[in-house]
Structures are given as C-alpha cells and as structure tokens.
Design brief:
This protein is an all-alpha fold and 76 residues long. 70% of the residues lie in helices and 0% in strands. It has one domain. Belongs to the FPP/GGPP synthase family. Pfam families: polyprenyl_synt.
Length: 76
C-alpha cells in the first residue's frame, strides 16, 4: 500500500509540473509546442484553477477552444 501511495503522489506531482510547463516552457525545452495541451483541447489543472478565480473562462472553455483568440484568452 505504501508503494501505491508513493507512486500515485509521484505521478500527480509529475502531471502538475507537466501542466505548468505547458504554459511556461519553450518548445525547445518541452520537446513539443508550448500550449499544445490547450490547442489539443486538453483542459489541465492550471486552466481549472484559473476558472475558479475567473469564472468567465468557463464559457470560453465550454466553447471548445477552437478559436485562436480563446486560446490566447485562457493562456493569460
């Protein structure tokens, strides 16, 4: 059970770092384009946290982020 908890928490930490790097990293450092998660319609933790602080973003996310202007809006 201890190994399971360790692995779960390690995985969560990795995912949170990956989510933040999508906003702050460069294409060269990431090995993929920055904001690629958002451009692919993947809603990550930073966006969910931003919606809590800025509820108007919820409508933008629900539209599907197909509009480049919406991507610019949620990538603050």
């Amino acid at each position: 059970m201890l190994a399971f908890e360790y692995a779960k928490n390690l995985g969560l930490a990795f995912q949170l770092i990956d989510d933040v790097l999508d906003f702050t990293g460069t294409s060269a450092s990431l090995g993929k384009g920055s904001l690629s998660d958002i451009r692919n319609g993947i809603i990550t933790a930073p966006i969910l946290f931003a919606i809590e602080e800025f509820p108007q973003l919820d409508a933008v996310v629900k539209r599907g982020l197909d509009n480049p202007a919406d991507i610019d809006l949620v990538s603050f």
